[in-house]
Amino acid sequence: MVNEQRFWHRLSGHLILAGGALILIALGQFQWNTAETELAAATAVPTPVSLAADLLSQTEIVTPTLVPQGSLPVINDDTLAPLPNPHTYQTKPPDHNFQMHEVARGETPNIIAGQYGISADTLLGGNTWLSQESNQLQVGAQLVILPVNGVLHKVRAGETIESIAELYQVPADDIIAYAPNNLEFPFYRLVPETELVIPGASIGQFFFTAPKSVATNAAGEPQWKVFGTGTYIWPVNGRCLTQFYNGFHPAIDVSSSEGSPVYASDTGTVTYASFAAGTYYDYGNLIVLNHGNGFETFYAHLSSIGVFPGQTVTQGELIGFTGNTGRSSGPHIHFEIRDRDFRINPLDRLGGGYQDCS
Ligand SMILES: [Zn+2]
């Protein structure tokens, strides 16, 4: 039984080899015929019909017509077909080639932006880490000069083209159409930790980074006395949202009557508790808590502040009262959660339902 199987196996092997040889012979024959046809076409003298037609024919490429000699062998299986090139399906990281600028003494974002004919907003968009203290540029710092107005966005795990388009309120097609982003049809896969240029995007008006007003060790690292739980509670009793999270407004606004209590969303250290002056006027009276775990929460437009920088607070503790200070039309709280300076959607962290009052 086993021997019989082997015999058929070998026979089929021989048949395949013989078949392959026949195919090669047939292909050789076909190529020979093709060569003959081409030779005939090249040596044929064109019959002039008219001068115009003759001139026209000189500019045309003469393509010999292939006449198959008999029927061609057809390969029915795919053993000889090339394997799909895996490179075609590999995700390519973006391939940017940015112009860089080294900050010289006395330069401001406006001066540098002017030199390159871009807006100050685009300068910040290309260097989002700058937003921190944009009026105190460090001499020697290297700045990315984006070739188009927009934002240089660092891709985070779980993000999609759609979610990024939504975040910055720009069409997804604009992100795809920007060639150096290397987004390939049909998957448009993103590579985490790489950077995409988001044409037409803006980082928005809220980009203040609070100083870390806590004790530091010899290496200058903050020494946190308390650490957040990693969970977040609503900062006010209301659940009526007047503005949702997006790139221009990386926060939620919760409607609240003037003077309502504001609670610490998580345990942390107060790093800012003051009227946000100058560029950060928009926030009005602002409290920032640093949770010591890479997260911060921002509470803006307050009528009064009940904590001081350096103070530690526990989750749920009363820290101030809602108001209408800064750029605000009506009493509400502007609430941000930041994960290592990136403003995340607070609704992704807060439990329970809410009402759309926008
Ligand atoms: Zn707001």
Q: How much helix is in the residues?
A: 10-25%
Going by CATH, what is the homologous superfamily of the domain at 240-356?
Glucose Permease (Domain IIA)
**Beta content:** 15-25%
CATH topology of the domain at 240-356: Glucose Permease (Domain IIA)
What is the count of DSSP helices, taking H or I runs of 4+ residues?
Answer: 6
CATH architecture of the domain at 240-356: Distorted Sandwich
Roughly how many Å is the radius of gyration? Answer: 34 Å
Q: How many angstroms does the end-to-end distance come to?
A: 80 Å
Ligand list: zinc ion
Describe this structure in words.
Helices cover 22% and strands 20% of the residues. A hairpin with a 4-residue loop joins strand 9 and strand 10. Among the domains are: 101 residues, LysM domain (Membrane-bound Lytic Murein Transglycosylase D, Chain A); 117 residues, Distorted Sandwich (Glucose Permease (Domain IIA)). With 358 residues, it is of the alpha+beta class. The chain has six helices and 16 strands. The chain is globular, with a radius of gyration of 34 Å. The strands form four sheets. Strands 5, 6, 8, 9, 10, 12, 14, 15 and 16 form a nine-stranded mixed sheet that branches. The chain binds zinc ion (ZN). Zinc ion binds next to loops.
